[in-house]
Amino acid sequence: FHILYENAKYWYCGGPKYLTRPAFHPVRTALVQYARQHTPLCIKAGVIAGPSGKHHSNVLTSHGETRSVFVPEGEWDGLTFIDLCQQRLVMSTNGCDDDNDDDQHSKMEEKEEQQSLAPAFEKEIASLQRAELLLLVRSELIDCLQICREKNETL
Hints:
Elements: H1 4-12, H2 26-38, H3 40-45, E1 54-60, E2 66-71, H4 78-94, H5 104-151
Antiparallel strand pairs: 1-2
Helix pairs in contact: 1-4, 2-5, 4-5
């Protein structure tokens, strides 16, 4: 049983198909272009896989098992994006509060940096969420229109 963000990761990686890398979708190419132009903080956070690509482990499968997924260099990393969306929710509900660091000085510096970046970072994540939704809807509408043309139908 998958809930919330784990469910999004499950379907991003093909759901029951057990993919070891995300399937191609044209929206991902557009998201890479959008991210490069508009969201430098999200780029820094890894929404585009770096020079060696990125391995994600512990992505759930249908029966509660896990799998590893590889995102090739330069491609949209939807798994990192899903993590950022979850982080955005946490930032908006508790103001970047993170009590997992034992070193108080480091913790204070990190918290100050997070708080100074939080509004801009949150805005970028929201911008990517909107872009993803709009690009997906656009893609589906274009596909629908193409099918209607092929069938010689009108909407």
